[in-house]
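pasting input
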Amino acid sequence: MSDTTDAAGRIISADGRPLKSSLNRALRREKLRALALIAPLLIFVLITFIAPIADMLFRSVENDIVSNTMPRTVASLRDWDSTSGEVPGAGVFESAYFDLAVAAQKKLHSQLGTRLNYELTGMSSMFRRTGRRMDDVGEVYMDQFAALDQAWESPEVWAAMIGDADWLASEKAWAKAQNPGTPPPAFEVKEGAQAALPLTAALYKDFAAYLRLNDGDSPTQEEPWPVFYAALYTDLINRPDAATAFSGADAQRLQTSAAAVTNFEAVDYKAAFVKADDGWGQVNTWATIKAFSPKYTPGYFLNAVDMQKTPQGISAQPESQQIYILLFKRTLFLSLTIMFSCIALGYPVAWLLANLPARSANLLLILVLLPFWTSLLVRTSAWKVLLQQQGVINDTLVWIGLVNDTDRLVLINNQFGTIVAMTHILLPFMILPLYSVMKTIPPSYLRAAKSLGATNWTAFWRVYFPQSVPGIGAGSILVFILSIGYYITPELVGGTTGTFISNRIAYHISSSLNWGLAAALGTILLVVVLALYWAYDRIVGIDNVKLGG
Amino acid sequence: MGANGTNEAFVAFDRVQKSYDGETLVVKDLNLAIAKGEFLTMLGPSGSGKTTCLMMLAGFETATNGEILLDGKPINSVPPHKRGIGMVFQNYALFPHMTVAENLSFPLEVRKIGKSDREAKVKRALEMVQMGDFGGRRPAQLSGGQQQRVALARALVFEPELVLMDEPLGALDKQLREHMQFEIKHIADSLGITVVYVTHDQTEALTMSDRVAVFEDGRIQQLAPPDQLYEAPENSFVAQFIGENNSLEGVVEQINNKVAVVRLDSGDLIDTIPVNVSQVGERTRVSIRPERVEFIKDRLSPDAHTLKAEVLEFVYMGDIFRTRLRVAGKDDFIIKSRNAPDQVRLKPGQTIEIGWMPEDCRALDA
Ligand SMILES: Nc1ncnc2c1ncn2[C@@H]1O[C@H](COP(=O)(O)OP(=O)(O)O)[C@@H](O)[C@H]1O
Ligand SMILES: [Mg+2]
């Protein structure tokens, strides 16, 4: 068939479509098939690699615990000037009471305390202590309402007053069925109740949702939280005509109560807070809460580079608490040292491997790979045995007489120990890429160089070495990136001076539970590695990295 | 041309033996003298020990036994880089991380030759191989033929007196190879250098060399100029290996110093020149070149022995006709005839009489 063209001058394929779209269609099918083949891996990588990294990046700036746990306080603090030198007004304390009373019921207040403690020491105990006192405040109102009408103590009365009629009916059916597996129906606020008693309705809704989610219980069977009485008091003071939105017994009871609340003994929230803990009377406490009320914060990153976010702005950490910059520098320095040690030790071995006859080379290769057959812990512990002060090396040195028995060398639990053990552990990652690159350099190059008059050294340095550089590059990147994130070996043999930033990250993840800071440190580490990788690409060129072939 | 004694030779192998594993000899008792300015080719099948000989000469392998002399001095203990021998490798071994000019400049740099001198020599060497414009390129950016030229220029740029080449044209296509054969020969002649050239291609050996050493199984089977090698092979191996050859087997029936009459296994009698036979009753393999066979009666001498032949196949090859015959019970007998206006084209099935001049028919070892 001769080629034909359409009106626009495009070539038409045999089936009458433009050639270009035919080709695209054919290629698309192949691409889809290829994609389907790698789909399992792609999904695996997404779930196990990309998602955790994204989560880590997010955690390093995430800070919604303050605004989630104390939404009303955060809102009231917006108008307060933290540089005024004065503690916020009564309104803020009132908001803080309702927030903390709910949080204490849900047992969330201590988490918030822990979070704020990263920024200001003492916050953790302050929140725990205050949380315990919150019920006392509510009970002052509870007792007064109960004295007015016994019905205020009944859970059903509360549920019927605030709950929607339909919800109430389905709740009754659920209670009758006595089906332990199913949760109660989702709570609905009665029309009108929301507008008439806004604070009470909001808290009650929170209460119902919490019960349903955590215990699978219905609010009709649980004692009302004491904080509801304080909320009801506030609502009735603000809206004396609230009863008009209700009918029947509820309206009656609210009517009487609204008339009575004006004579109730009111609680001074500020005094109650300060009584629970002096910290509430200090400006710094409130300034810290305000500073960390936004949903996102640079605080973790600032901490990760030895700075802090204070109400006055960003400043350096006190000298005694500066640790991370030092650790980053040390991690980089030790990783580079380990990398260069690996090059120095691995290059001759790789050269031997590539140039020995096949049989001896295979044996040597097995020896190189042997460490992979034993556990990392065993290898590291072996170094402990060798390097400790009562260990094999010191014993030998003392026995030879090179070292006095009284001043044995400190070879472990310091940087030296980390360098030795990690060089040993990472050496195969240097040798293998070097070997596979050297294997591809034909021996005729060296012969050619020598036939041209080069000595052995010149032939090696001018001809062989430059061709093995891609192997050095690949090995160095592998070793450096592995070592910069290494954790177990420095933990075991590094002591205090030989630990890496990863050890600190691990500490924050498993001991101090400061995941945000751990995430920020991890993110910085990731950025440093990417920056070094970029620099390497600019200087050496990433095309110059070969793992073989 | 050709040297007769080791004392006046430029390169001499004196009873050299080589074994890699201590069990088999790869080179067996090699004696070879190469004169200054000579182009000597080592020709032989793969594995016959040619490269090994070259490597011993270059210094990358040591002779297990015997001595190698360069310009009269033994070089067994001189390291390769001090021998001053240029070398062209089969895969060229151009340094991939250097440009063409840097590759050429390398042997001059290690000889501590000044920069301006170096540049001049590199330029001259590149121009000699017609690669003057390619100095800035990397070897990977050159075609096979161009790489070959650069490798040649690099081996010559430091003006060695002896250049070794190990199958330097092996990777090129036929046309380029023929062109390069001519060029290498031309350069070698104009520079007056001594060349030891290794190849397994007999055409290459015949067209380029002053003398050819035919290797087999670690031994030189024959050392002679190309025409002698082709026309007067000294044994069956050389006869078979060089050019196309017909061989017939039989027993010597009569012999004097000029002619041996051989009775073939089919019973026919033919006249031959005795080369490797000396007495009646000896078994022999008779060798005749295809283009020396005649089948037109009046071109043969009247008393010549002739053989009956049946035409099996006729192939038209342009300049020649190649005809396959059944002769004396063997059906791989080839004759070649020139495509001339009066030439006869034989047809399969036809029966003819063939014969040849007695001096074209050599009785060799069985
Ligand atoms: N480095 C070596 N080690 C062991 N045997 C070798 C080595 N090089 C060559 N040989 C053997 O020596 C013989 C001759 O090889 P070589 O000189 O390369 O032959 P050629 O170049 O004529 O093809 C072969 O049988 C080959 O297997
Ligand atoms: Mg060879």
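fyi The radius of gyration of chain B is 25 Å.
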